[in-house]
Design a protein that fits this description.
- The structure is a homodimer.
- By secondary structure, chain A is of the alpha/beta class.
- The first copy, chain A, has 18 helices and 29 strands.
- In chain A, strands 14-13-12-15-17-16 form a six-stranded mixed sheet, with helices on both faces.
- In chain A, strand 27, helix 14 and strand 28 (564-568) form a beta-alpha-beta unit.
- In chain A, helix 6 (245-252) packs across helix 7 and helix 13 packs across helix 17 (605-612).
- The two termini of chain A are 20 Å apart.
- The interface between A and B is large, with 45 and 45 residues.
């Protein structure tokens, strides 16, 4: 049998292997290590290597993108040696980072050139005429004259600033720094508004906020460059009063409930801003504008609007297009006169997190039939093109945000974000955010784990843990059957990290609601799911989602992988765009006004679709041909797809 | 000697008297009574009778107007019988009321026809489409649509109302009453503003407020009819922190001083409004607009603006033309979303009490050279015509408002408003507001008393009480020399009611400041006082002022009486006009912007003029020919003018 030389870099060792050997075998023969957490099934992508030479035949390229392949990457466990090769084994960490970055994570960048003049906050110095007995005009007239001279003939001055004006103007010797909010272009009759007046130079910043039912996120934005100076997220402090919007609405109807919920989310925002303050050195008092997205209930609670009517037919919110308010009116801990611009939503269950998401994902600008899914606590779904959009919402629950799951957590340090389970031993391997000992599972980790447990047969299609498997990983736990992801000795908590049957049920309900949502939505406009040209996935954890695994559990429709794009938190991204650009803000307004809303609770087909989707991947497995192929083997014991 | 028949009505007695007898003597001969509190000097006008027949020769007609004379009135003590006469003696009370009404008091009426559409507050019922699953627009969109349908396409809705909207709209079954503030005509791009939203019908009222340094006055105004539903006044609760604006400004600079002063005036307004509530049954929460006049310092304190710079050269206020604020922003106890429109002033010492006064008195519309004097705590003076106006202010102090005088009080029940002192006995007679036992002296009473004491020789030209007179009325009191106006047995307080030397000095300083003010003002524009065609006197007590007596003490220039008009509180009158009419409000703005301000403290001639005016009536008595004529007799003992 012919042999071939395989040179391994950076170790610079060369081994001879017979034709047909796997690259992974060549590496092992050289005494080098390469991780194969999935047991060499080609499912985890962790054995990706860089291959030079003609003698490599890739049997499977799961987990590698077209770009990866073009660049020369191959999976060591799925690539056969048929000639001489030079194989570079990347640092394990480098692979991870590359995969994460390329496939999912992106730097926060604007899709348009930033023009400070196309947003509403200006800071500059004014030069006023000094008063005398001959020129005894009052302070405010003097200030207004100076503002008119630089192009602002109409400026509203809030009473608080009138109160401070006399002292500031004299302390700065009639050359104050001012912060002005200017109206959007095309409104020549609208007045500008003075937000601040100070002796010292002011470098205004702004904040883009996404208030999710589970997670509150914020970008601190430099208004000079448009850059994100820092971002932070925290669980919404309202969670203890209910995990989903319905329980919050019910709590808000209690005596003092609304006030308490408002207070909580403001407290969460305070924490987030304090953390950004610590990290960037920027005092929240320097924040002169907040643009806020959130589902309709979250914005009602932020603004102190009773949300009760959202819950009851005909599901009418107080307002979908809230007028801007001042920070002090709602008690938001930024500059008290800062404008808080709550972005426009569509209906009670399609809020501005979705309209901002649509803005960010580009659905409203494309000719392609696009499905946009925001996998938050509420799964909201938009289907359409630049010419039309329909939207619906399905109460997915917070499982994918790490809440409602025993060891769920947000995607912060210590969160398992991807898991591989060995096909034969059922032993897991994981990747942890921050590369530390694991503390819990974030949304992408949960999807990954659920899929791995399913395809390795640890759980069945109904989500039941198979306790008869020959591994200590499955056991009857305190809360019923469970799978141990990490032993106490491996975790940062000192306790076993598990996924319970109850967790699995919660995850199944969440994914079923989302799947039912987009299938009913497609049906309502007579579109087949397979005609969807792109699927854009948002949501705070969507950035790290693994499409293969999301399809395996039936969360996403079974379409070719290249049609999926994972965009992360599109709500805050769109909010960031709207904050920095009058025209993006107007586009968002247009999206909110023109989108058609489908009320699922008024649609009988939804409940049937939901029930059918409660299985893995779905009751009708024909809807998931790629997953069905795994099931060609013995029932309950899948044979890995495309295994050589 | 010929005799004549004098028939006296309503007693219907006839007496025969010799030619040359006084009517007063005929009355006494018939055994009837007629009051002659001034001792028959023709000074008090209290013996006015109605005379029919040709045989009456009026020697003096002091205290009678041209109208009075035409109607047939004559002074019994100054009218000689030269033929048969029929004399009707009016009820004493009727005379008083008639005199007060004709000469001074007027019903509060608008000088223009009231058009509810020419002011900014509207209340009406709206009919909204009820929501359904098919029409799931949000509450606010529904409300805005209904407003647009009745002509208000742009309406700002304050957050407080958005917060209550859901409940109200459902309680009223989608037919709410709304209160709207609409922009003035000629501002088509300005938005209207929603002020209230309720299930029950709303009849909006408004309030016109004059914040004087000493007295705070308010008119409660029905916005349907434009009528004044009630008026009330109270001492400004800030008085205990200083009687004039300067001491208030100094107090405001203390730690917490500004807050305390704001709180005080708001407390006073609360009292005034509570009294109006009690009297009219109208809850202050139904007040949807407040239009406020006041001197610049008072408005700074109301708005919470530090007034410190008003006091120091170059005397610059924070603002002369304050933007409207919402009642809740300053803590004014009316509807929290009501607009508080603080009227525009001219300079630190010529505030909107004066611009409103100029509006009310008609100076800005007349071709006649007009002197407008507002005799409040600060004597403010405007000279001009419709083409030009100059203004100045002189710190008169609060003496004429009853403060700074031991037994001073406002012109409420129990206040002596006019006094006559008998030429020979020095016994006083008085008229008391409400016709009850006296409690104190109001401004007009003080002027009257000062003049009487002067012309009867109880005090000398320097204001010293002549203790050597043969009457128990003059005495050395606890605080120096004093004159007893009423004995303890006659007063409602059970104590002697006195005017002390210190009181006299305060009154002299007040009148000297005012006289110096208008003489310097006239000089500054090269106008002679005697060319002034009308003198319009405002001020809260100006309605009851006695021109003869005001000239006698040198408070007013010695001009023919018919040139004087006493207009009362012109500040609140102009405020009332501006409240009810967009065009009056605009006229007032124009007055404020076009008036020229003369800073007396930058004018060296003022102090000299003030010092010269500290005498009765003035150091240069030649300036007061009519008073000089009284002094033709022996020095220190005036001979009454025109006595027969």
């Amino acid at each position: 049998m012919a042999t071939h030389k395989v040179t391994l870099l950076p170790a610079d060792q060369t081994v001879e292997v017979p034709t047909g050997s796997l690259v992974a075998e060549a590496i092992q023969r050289a005494g080098l290590e390469i991780a194969q957490p999935c047991g060499g099934q080609g499912r985890c992508g962790r054995c990706a290597v860089f291959v030079q030479g003609e003698g490599a035949r890739r049997r499977s390229t799961i987990r590698l993108s077209a770009d990866d392949l073009t660049s020369g990457f191959a999976l060591a466990c799925q690539t056969v040696v048929e000639g001489d090769l030079v194989v570079t084994i990347p640092e394990q960490e480098r692979i991870e980072r590359r995969l994460v970055t390329d496939k999912t994570a992106r730097a926060i960048e604007l899709p348009f050139p930033y023009d400070p003049a196309n947003q509403g906050i200006r800071a500059f110095r004014l030069y006023l005429a000094e008063p005398s007995l001959q020129d005894n005009r009052d302070d405010q007239a003097r200030l207004e004259l100076a503002l008119a001279a630089v192009g602002y003939p109409q400026v509203e001055v809030p009473l608080d600033l009138v109160r401070r004006m006399g002292q500031v103007l004299r302390e700065c010797e009639w050359s104050p720094w001012v912060v002005l909010e200017t109206p959007p272009p095309g409104r020549p009759h609208a007045a500008a508004r003075l937000i601040d007046l100070a002796q010292d130079p002011i470098e205004p910043v702004a904040v883009a906020i996404d208030i999710g039912t589970t997670t509150v996120s914020a970008y601190l934005v430099d208004l000079a460059s448009g850059e994100v100076l820092g971002s932070s997220a925290e669980y919404n402090g309202q969670i203890q009063f209910g995990e989903d919007v319905i329980s919050r609405i019910i709590y808000a109807a209690r005596n003092g409930g609304l006030t308490e919920l408002s207070r909580r989310v403001l407290g969460t925002l305070e924490e987030v801003l304090a953390r950004l303050h610590k990290r960037t050195g920027i005092d929240p008092q320097r924040i002169y504008k907040a643009t806020v997205a959130g589902n309709t209930t979250m914005l009602h609670l932020l603004l102190g609007l009773p949300p009760g009517t959202i819950r009851l037919a005909p599901y009418i919110p107080t307002v979908n297009l809230p007028a801007p308010v001042r920070a002090h009116e709602i008690g938001l801990g930024i500059h008290p006169l800062a404008t808080v611009d709550c972005l426009p939503g569509v209906a009670s269950y399609v809020g501005s997190d979705i309209t901002a998401g649509v803005l960010a994902c580009g659905l409203s600008e494309t000719e392609e039939l696009t499905l946009f899914i925001d996998v938050g606590t509420n799964g909201e779904i938009v289907l359409g093109t630049r010419d039309w959009q329909v939207a619906c919402a399905c109460s997915a629950g917070p499982a994918f945000e790490g809440a409602g799951v025993v060891h769920g957590m947000r995607a912060t340090e210590g969160a398992i974000e991807e898991v591989w389970v060995h096909t034969r031993t059922y032993e897991p391997t994981w990747r942890v955010v921050g590369n530390v000992a694991p503390r819990g599972l974030c949304g992408s980790g949960l999807i990954s784990l659920l899929a791995e447990l399913f395809v390795t047969g640890v759980i069945d299609r109904g989500g039941n843990v198979k306790l008869d498997l020959d591994t200590p990983r499955v056991r009857q736990g305190e809360h019923g059957p469970e799978y141990v992801v990490a032993w106490a000795s491996e975790t940062s908590t000192g306790k076993d990290l598990v996924l319970t049957k109850v967790d699995v049920d919660n995850l199944l309900r969440a994914k079923a609601a989302i799947y039912a949502g987009f299938s009913v939505l497609a049906g309502s406009v007579g579109v087949r799911l397979e005609d969807v040209q792109q699927v854009l996935v948002g949501g705070s954890f969507g950035k790290y989602i693994n499409v293969e695994k999301a399809i395996q559990i039936g969360l996403l429709p079974d379409l070719p992988w290249e049609r999926f794009k994972f965009l992360g938190n599109t709500a805050i991204l769109g909010t960031y765009y709207a904050l920095l650009s009058h025209s993006e803000r107007e586009r968002l307004q247009h999206i909110a006004r023109s989108m058609t809303y489908l009320e699922l609770s008024a649609d009988n087909t939804f409940y049937d679709a939901f029930t059918a989707a409660l299985f893995l991947p779905h009751t009708e497995i024909v809807r998931f041909p790629s997953v069905a192929s795994i099931w060609e083997g013995e029932a309950g014991k899948p044979s890995p797809r495309q295994a050589g």
